[in-house]
Amino acid sequence: xxxxxxxxxxxKAIPQGAIxxxxxxxxxxxxxxxxEASTKRxxxxxxxxxxxxxxxxxxxxxxxxxxxxxxxxxxxxxxCGAPIGMAPANLELESTKLVRMLEGHSPEIAGDLYDKMxxxxxxxxxxxxxxxxxxxxxxxxxxxxxxxNLVRKVFPDLLPLKSPMVQV
Length: 168
Known about the structure:
Layout: H1 4-13, H2 18-21, H3 26-35, H4 39-47, H5 53-63, H6 91-94, H7 111-124, H8 127-138, H9 148-154
Helix pairs in contact: 1-3, 4-9, 5-8, 7-8
């Protein structure tokens, strides 16, 4: 991962719409957003990603309690040594295939096959993006300040409605 100073400087230098013009990887985007101090700027940056399925699928996987992977175990994998943007795979394209690894989908993908498919995916992504997939599986934070409230504000239809509290 990049140093916090480099990421923060890069994030401040990104003009409106630049995330759409340059293909930042999903891990880079979450890192830039989490290093941004202003909540308003976090909203703007996340909003620039409206057409990025990798971002939206990662947010859904982490924040939607109904999205559950078949296993939270992470198989052994070898980090890809390619520079950002040069890895054999990227999460924006591969994230739509992750549905096969969710509970209730593709029952033939289980056990050793699941472990092999997940290990291959993690090995073919840039390490930044592999860490995003692991966060998705384990429902861990995608970065500082990337909260459910922020996601609901930027993408109001992305997550299921919260059920109201019943007072007794």
